[in-house]
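seq/struct pair 1
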Amino acid sequence: MTNTTSTDPTTATPVRHRHAAGPAIAILRGGTGEHVEDVIATLVDAGVRAIEITTNTPRWREGIAWAADRYGTSASIGVGTVLEPRQLDEAAGAGAVFAVSPHLDAAIGERAHERGLGWYPGAATPTEIVRAWELGARAVKVFPAAQLGGPAFLKQVLAPLDFVDVIPTGGIGVDDASEYLAAGAVAVGLGSPLVGDALTSGDLDALRTRAERLVAGLAR
């Protein structure tokens, strides 16, 4: 699959190609499956407008279906940790609108395109980032962002690659997320620093506090 938005990767990317669900993607991973719906509701009510439920989360299909039905018009619901194309069929059937992988796999990108899903593959090097963009990624998940060098790394990479939309993920805290946007990211992905133990303990008050702090920090 090739990126059909432009034949010249150095030109400005059309608006339709961009991630458009707000500056933060909350990543739900693990837990017991018991609190998935409550966690999603708390995040959306706090202002987070993109929710990624990973395939190694119990009841991930049910969670996507519930969230898409309830919040499909006000938030983007996606599937994460996609490791094989068939998972995209299940996610699309449940109502997901985007798909995230920790790695770059052209077959997954092709199936995402066929199912009408925005594709956010993982990449760590400039070569991988450009290749993902050429294969039609809506945005590239730069992963693991903090371990790669954080905002400083991102700023250096995007100096020559400013035509690529990136969503850094991995090790990003609630209070430093805005630094990645300042470095050029279109959004950030946050897992445990945002969700904490809410999927296991059901502690929604602490989750709401973190989510509201994140949204307020990214709005500045």
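seq/struct pair 2
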Amino acid sequence: MKKSIANRSFFAAATFAAFQIFTHCSKKEDPMPKGIDAVFVGSSDNKLYALNSKTGAKLWDFATKGTVHSSPTLAIGMAIVGSSDQNIYAVDLKTGAKVWEFALDMGISSAPTVSGNTVYVGMGGTSNFTSKLYALDVVTGAKQWEFVADGISISSPTVVNGKVYVGGFNNLYALDAKKGTKLWEFGTGAGVDSSPSVVDGVVYVGSNDYNVYALDAETGAKKWNFSTGGEVSSSPTVSGGSLYIGSFDRKLYAVNSQTGAKLWEFRTDGPVLSSPSVSNGVVFVASNDHKMYAVDAKTGAKKWETWSTNRIQASPVVTDSLAYVGGIDGRFFAVDVQSGAKKWEFQTGGAVYSSAAVLSSSSKTYFSGVSGLQQ
């Protein structure tokens, strides 16, 4: 099943890097406000929403001039998010007031990544069929560098050990995080919408050529590949020696992260564009069959499922007690992680492709998936 470039942009937020369901504690260089229980999510109604994470009550919304399929990231008291209006915005977490914006010369549906004092954002379509990745100052939004690649991609960048890893039109790039110069590239047989994870010196990424690849993070040399029955727009999540990833063939896979050998597969009734999140031995993933699933991480046995009224392409975000996800019907909801029982839902004015970011009152942050960012 092939997707057009236009359709790819709609589910880009679902491919947000299988990034972090980890706990990111405050640092001196990255202070986060305390006393706020909030979840931040974008919508096709051109808004970024801040909701009370326990009740779903709206705290504020920030309006852009285009759809917000980009998944927000949180840094130094701001939510940072891209829009199809060709801008990236930094918004105050408490008030929703704009702190800065930067014009990108392309619509953005991939997710920004913050490392140190830099925001990395990009891969989108320019008028001359190229993609760009930008490095911006996180405090001011001033440009530090840009990298231009042929073709269109919607992969979100991952930054580990001074390198930026991001998918391209038919390849994966590794760039110097300070300079933006290319260190290596690895060619695949089709586009890389998946966002890479980096764990223990290995880069994991999916491709629309139906494969998942494991590459040496320093050299780009292939260690192994695992073939599925469909395009892999989902981003890999690595936890406990296993890699979890979804495919257009309607399956969630678990494979050995060292060898690529299949451990188990779990079949849904629709393509799995969502990226899995793993918490306390459970894999959380959504499907185009209108459901979100909780699956045993070791066996692949279903623990529970919960329904929505339309496709779910966003990636779940999981805290100790709740899992959050939105769907094409515009509903964003929270469910109990143990039972799947719905705790609350919030209706936006457009489809939700964005994956959420959660800030707890103790200043811990949660994003979707597990990535080498925290290791």
